[in-house]
Amino acid sequence: MEFIKSEKGKDKLIYNGYMYTFEKFGTEEKSIWKCDQYKKMKCKGRIHSLNNEILKEIQHNHVQDSGNIEAAKAVNLIKNMATQNVDLSTRAVISSASTSVS
């Protein structure tokens, strides 16, 4: 289970090769996350979590998309490096981040 930030600064959950966005809180403070491909693929994939532990996983109607996940991680890395190293040029930040991305 891993978290990254969306373009709007909200948390996204990465688990088992899928990306999820927060949907709502359920009973007993559990969090319900819906598949990031909910609108595009009409995917009903969901995760129910409590205290960073997966309680329930509902299946997806599409394959894992590791390319989108890696791209989102790279964008997050670049944004983090840019905010932490304000004295670096854009080129230096991207160069540094590209060596860190697998």
UniProtKB/TrEMBL annotation:
Keywords annotated in UniProt: Metal-binding, Zinc, Zinc-finger
Boundaries of every FLYWCH-type domain copy: 3-62
Question: Which Pfam families does the UniProt entry name for this protein?
Answer: FLYWCH
Q: Name one GO molecular function term.
A: zinc ion binding
| Alphabetical list of InterPro entries matching this protein | Znf_FLYWCH
Judging by the UniProt lineage, the source's domain of life is Eukaryota
Please identify the protein, giving its name as recorded: FLYWCH-type domain-containing protein
Q: Which organism is it from?
A: Macrosiphum euphorbiae
